[in-house]
Amino acid sequence: MVIVIDPQIAGISGDMLLSSLVNLGADKNKIIEGIEKSQKFLSNSTIKKIDFQKIQKRGIESTELILEIDENISERKGIEIKKAILDAVNELNIPTKGKIFAESCINTLISSESKIHGISEDSVHFHEASSIDTLVDIVGITIALDDLKLFEEKIICLPVSVGGGTVSFSHGTMSNPTSAVLQIFKNSNLNIQGNNSKEELTTPTGACILVNLTNNPIQYYPSMNVSSIGYGAGQKDFETFSNVLKIIQGDENNFEIDTVKILETNIDDISGEILGHLIEKIMDQGAKDVSIYPGITKKGRPTNLVCIICDDVKVDTIIDTLVLETGTLGIRISNSNRFIVPRSNHNFSLTFDGRAFEVNYKKSSHNGKTHFKIEFDDLKNISNALDKPIIDIESFLRKEIEKIEGL
After folding, report:
1. For domain 343-405, which CATH number applies: 3.10.450, 1.10.3210, 3.10.20, 3.40.50?
2. What is the tens place of the pLDDT at every residue in 197-207?
3. 361 — phi, psi (to 5°)?
4. I need a surface site. Which of 58, 84, 310, 377 has the fewest CB within 10 A?
5. pTM for the whole thing?
């Protein structure tokens, strides 16, 4: 099962995510009851009315949170709201994964304010996030995720729309996205994007919940069979799009999905020996793969196209190596989604001509067929140790693995 969060158009807020989970099938009565029990942990705030209702958002029937509160407070310490949330999830007997999730959400919100203002986390004061809304969103979403058993599922996220223009709040006017939203997304792998709405589409609370729910970004929908869709409405209305967050639940078509960086550069003035050294060095630095292709560029110049696949965290290190080792003046970077056939690592020991060896291999399965590949370094080591051709060693080992796997 896979869960796709789609905030590409309307962004995300706490109430939109909570409403989309109710629309997806979470028990709204259980959520309302849990939130009503939780309000006692936050003084000077009373929930007068809470419910979920169906609403049309530019032709899309979705679920909207109805919340009426009575509170006369303009700021609260972050640790006060944190204590209320932790007391609430403990009283509601939320499972451990849910408790960790709820605590991580409020910790992220507090940490972002601490870093922005250069103060300790114990000194952080919330203004916009001081309302009981924050507790409602985090506790309500935790209950909903537990009810739908989504803490056990794979969750991925499309690019997050943050809007554009400016935002006015307690510290004055700031360009959108605000510093809090940027700080929250700073250390996540999720991608953000602006648009011409001139409105805040992703709130700090929505952002902090999202980054703790998933750290798996995608650019496009995966290959999947859709089983259910949840539509969560935001409070604002826009002329050009439906202010609705979508959550899609379904089955992936037997592939894992991740996102990688593709680094490319053309090199036309270094030797093959240096290119060979470059491949080894970049692979040692954690690249997933390196390919070099011969070609012709402008003015008929022969060239080598260096193409590297790597994780986001390896980009800076590998770029430094490319520039220093080759003298290249430019490197192209792009994101790419990958469909990955699930695989697993295996090993076994065997005695060959009176000597013991460890053999490692990868096994993958797709459409009922199993494939395996023996680690080449093991083939080479055994070949050298026994002074036998690799092709003979591989043929023997494949027969042994087929016996082990029952193929």
Report:
1. 3.10.20
2. 888 999 999 99
3. -150, 155
4. 377
5. 0.68
